[in-house]
Design brief:
241 residues; mainly alpha; two-stranded antiparallel ribbon
Length: 241
Amino acid sequence: MPPAIAPEGLRPPGGRPRDEDRRTRKPLPLWDRIKFLVLLTAVWFLLVLNTASSNPLIPVADAFRIQLRSGFWVIVLAGLEVLRQIHFLISEHWAGYHQFWTHKVFGGAERLTHRRLSDWTRFRLWRLALVLFWIAVIAVIAGRVTHQSPAAALLKLPSYVWHALPLVFQILAASANPRSGLCAMADQARTNQARTSRSRNFTRSQNESGLRVRRSSSRGRSPGGRSPSTGPAGAVVISCS
């Protein structure tokens, strides 16, 4: 039996309706519905961790409260995204609402762009706007992390990435050869810890010696028990011999 031929303008029997024939909006997959909310949540927590790590005296709870004020733009963007998804959800179930927004609100602009621009040009313009948006988001985040303006942080971002490359290479080496890579990273960590300990001990000894000199000077004698001698211009000279 030959297959049934659908009349012109109608879809074949059992075929899926075209987007322009739908009375409601095409339902979005779950990931497309939540991906921007997940990204904005990750950005906000990154800013919170940066605030908490930049000052050890700030607890995490205070870092949350600080970002509720300084990172309010992330919350605004998340709220706008929630409103957008609610709009899409209503359009997927209410034909009148979807038709109003499609034909009455955006219909004129859609027809104008179709007359003036080709589909390829509109696609490229949309991609360009999306790239510029994400560049702006990255610049704002880099500025918050480095405590600079977004423009300055964006210009210095390649240098930050370049300085972070050795750590990335160490992680890649550790994943390729776990034993040798982890040993190298452990040796580097021990070396850094030893340098930090030596620097800390040197600073402590300098502070203690300066404190002894100030105490001895206030008592009118040198640290070795000798009386200080007066040099030129009334300066106090302490003999170390």
